[in-house]
């Protein structure tokens, strides 16, 4: 059975492994008595739960550590705080709904969809009010986008702070949204010629409001009611949220209740005293909406140490850009002295996460791991030094600088900076 049509299958498999890197040595052979393979395990002895034991599926109990986490000292109260996606534990580009990071300004609004309304008013021909049923009768679209908080990596502006990709870069997720294009809804009301901006308003206790140029509103914005095929989660804006592809997450107003059309921006709190970039001269950059090209290695990383010792190693990470697709990701093993081109695998969609891999044979020595992404508009992810040279150290938002992990001979990793 080992040979067929003149081909030695065992030799072919061995050759294939060698071509992709060092062949993996088996941890044990049967003669050495590995009990995990030689002994009958409990799960083969007894019947398991039936089909209705878990009417809404949950992860395995052995994956209970894969959860969102917060930093307790970051804010005074959890109602206006953030938790982080465990990006180090995930693969591919789609984030499971239960792991998408949360950012609230007044806690989660629990809204009965039967009582929820979306108002369109301002510089329109006909002010309108939509029920959820009304919205679901309009033509809908499915789009995959990343959502990143403008403060993602904000703690790292002045130096290495948080020890883990979940905490340094975990205010990002990527899902498939289902919803109605905002241009369709605005078209129902009719935009007056003087209408140049829209104001999106949320129904939570913070009454989140953001100004958006009309060009963006009628380009690719969605009014979404589903994510990854199911209804939005309450913490993600159920029953209705705005999707503003490629732009900072604060503009993706959750629990969306009103869209007003105006002729000028409203200059609300979240676009004046907050979500602006303080420069070295004391002035603040405003309306910096686009989330620039960015990447991070998620494994190995401080929360994902190398456990198997020297040998074949898969370096994995995420890259994204608010400008569109990622066309290239380079990885450095020596703190940016030399770069190797990584392999982007899976769908390459505009304004979505991209998964990259670099397969190496680790010799057990120290590594200074970095990744550098390039998008289809030609923007190259900068180093932290390059970013600070332009914007100083007083900022919080829009930190897309290159991240460094120091991987030690014992496989552990630490958040560091190199210069």
Topology overview:
Elements: E1 3-4, E2 7-8, H1 9-20, H2 35-38, E3 69-70, E4 83-84, E5 117-122, E6 128-131, H3 132-135, E7 141-148, H4 165-169, E8 172-181, H5 182-189, E9 197-202, E10 209-213, H6 214-217, E11 222-227, E12 230-231, E13 241-243, E14 256-262, E15 277-278, E16 284-285, E17 294-299, E18 311-320, E19 326-332, E20 340-341, E21 343-345, E22 354-362, E23 367-375, H7 384-391, E24 404-407, E25 413-416
Parallel strand pairs: 5-14
Antiparallel strand pairs: 1-2, 3-4, 5-6, 7-8, 8-11, 9-10, 9-14, 11-12, 11-13, 15-16, 17-18, 18-22, 19-20, 19-23, 21-22, 23-24, 24-25
Explain what this protein looks like in three dimensions:
This protein is mostly beta strands and 419 residues long. The chain folds into 2 domains: 83-285, Sulfite Oxidase, Chain A, domain 2; 294-416, Immunoglobulin-like. It contains 7 helices and 25 strands. The protein is globular. Residues 1-7 and 9-22 have low confidence and may be disordered.
Strand-pairing-aware structural class: mainly beta
- The helix fraction, in percent, is 10-25%
User: Could you name the CATH class of the largest domain?
Assistant: Alpha Beta
Number of strands: 25
Would you identify the CATH H-level superfamily of the largest domain?
Answer: Oxidoreductase, molybdopterin-binding domain
Shape: globular
What is the architecture of the largest domain at the second tier of CATH? Alpha-Beta Complex
Strand order in the largest sheet: 6-5-14-9-10
Largest sheet: 5 strands, mixed
Q: Termini, distance in Å?
A: 58 Å
Q: Beta-strand level of the residues, as a percent range?
A: 25-35%
Low-confidence stretches at least 5 residues in length (pLDDT < 50)?
1-7, 9-22
- In total, the number of domains comes to 2
Average pLDDT confidence is: 93
Query: Which assembly state applies to the chains in this document?
Result: single chain
CATH topology of the largest domain: Sulfite Oxidase, Chain A, domain 2
* C-alpha Rg (nearest Å): 24 Å
Give the count of helical stretches.
Answer: 7
Organism: Lutibaculum baratangense AMV1
Protein name: Sulfur oxidation molybdopterin C protein
Domain Moybdenum cofactor oxidoreductase dimerisation: 287-403
Cofactor: Mo-molybdopterin
